[in-house]
Amino acid sequence: MRIATFNINGVNGRLANLLEWLGVTTPDIVCLQELKATQEAFPEEAIRDAGYGAIWQGQKSWNGVAILARGVEPIETRSALPGDPEDRQSRYIEAAVNGVIVGCLYLPNGNPAPGAKLDYKLRWIERLRDHAKDLLDAGVPVVLAGDFNVMPTEQDVYAPERWVDDALFRPEVREAFRKLLAQGWTDAVRKLHPDDRIYTFWKYYRNAFARDAGLRIDHLLLSPELANRAVAAGVDRSVRGREHASDHAPVWIELSGPHPQRQRRTD
Q1: Residues contacting residue 98 through CB under 8 Å, at least 6 positions apart
Q2: Is 248 labeled as catalytic in the residue annotation?
Q3: What is the CATH number of the domain that holds 228?
Q4: Binding site for Mg(2+): what residues are annotated?
Q5: What is this structure's pTM?
Q6: 147 tagged catalytic
Q7: According to UniProt, where does the site described as Interaction with DNA substrate lie (predicted)?
């Protein structure tokens, strides 16, 4: 089973790139972030024509998350992160797909920091940690995938000294992420590539992609039931180099064991 996460940075504006990538790599499950589309504007028909069932939570201009499943319909289990009924930002969606609970998330950026946006980010991580603990306690296979807007270590950023005051790298944010992992989650990409510099995001300016001046902020966290099944992981860097690309590249993991019938389409 291949599970991928991809901050698409505008699902309609980059739909051609998304469909081409889906057609070439055929992941079984895809978590998308930054749809930047209302609920009604999500390109459901094109996604279904590509062979994927989908659930999504849209939001005008900003945010938005979706889960795609090849050949099957994701069964929605949550449409928002619990813990704050007043939070209307579309940043979390969850589904059951082929025996796995999939949490797709777009964690707040938090800049400028310090300030209200960083405070919101830290509260959001705390809510995520509370919900993640409940998922672990349930003893079911779970993957939390998405744009976490966190570089966990200096290994995950091209120039750590330039990011010390940024909300993606501040000590309190990295500590909050570490506490999440300490519950029993496995950072799948880092587990399989412990010594490599791997990036998932490159800014649009200063020729960042060509210089490989990147950040690793897109992660797939596995519950203990899945961690030992992770056999491969990578970043589809070439997608970032295409015309009109997102500033993120898709990140994927391969799990051993049963996987869905990849040829069965959703009509």
Answers
A1: 1, 28, 29, 69, 72, 258, 259, 260
A2: yes
A3: 3.60.10.10
A4: 7, 34, 147, 149, 247-248
A5: 0.95
A6: yes
A7: 248
